[in-house]
Amino acid sequence: MKRTVYIWGDPERFANYRRWVESAGARAVFGEDAGGRGAKWDALLLPGGGDLEPWRYGQENTASRGLEPERDEAELRLLQEFTSAGKPVLGICRGLQTVNVFFGGTLAQDVPGHGTLEGRDRLHPVRTAPSCPLWMEALTVNSAHHQAADRLGGGLRALQWAEDGVVEALRHERLPVWAVQWHPERLGNPAPGRRLMEAFLDLAR
What we know:
Blueprint: E1 4-8, H1 15-23, E2 27-31, H2 37-40, E3 43-46, H3 69-84, E4 89-92, H4 94-102, E5 107-108, E6 122-128, E7 139-143, E8 148-149, E9 156-162, E10 167-172, E11 177-180, H5 190-203
């Protein structure tokens, strides 16, 4: 039976994520009901999108845009449900930021040099911690964000960094919670993203 990955929102908006999940042999399930999902589905995926409301991590709004308050509330509730059930969570871009805020971390509201260039993802190399088994080789990833994790939340450990020190991947020390700041669902080289999704789904066995 296929493992199921829940994504809060509209399937048309997150079609790239659906294809990415399905390419690894799982089934993406969409909806806007944040109640009781942790008990029903195997794993949770938090996709990219607009910025979180800064008050959620104790700041005034100085540079945040594209706010999605309803989504913030729903995804934070889902995080509570899935982590309480011990089920895997994977955050992508905004999803990494959501994970960090959920565990009590903060965000840098405007980080130069990581947004898109002429409407296309920005490519850049990253440094990966030796303790990370997923990407041992030198890796080039894609950036399309203007915010990033600042102070990491409780239990979170950085696994990957851009040249300027921005955290590009993290995981929780005890819980099956992973996140990357880049976009594996649309990276030109599919191998790093495939490796990530397959390892993530293995956590849901």
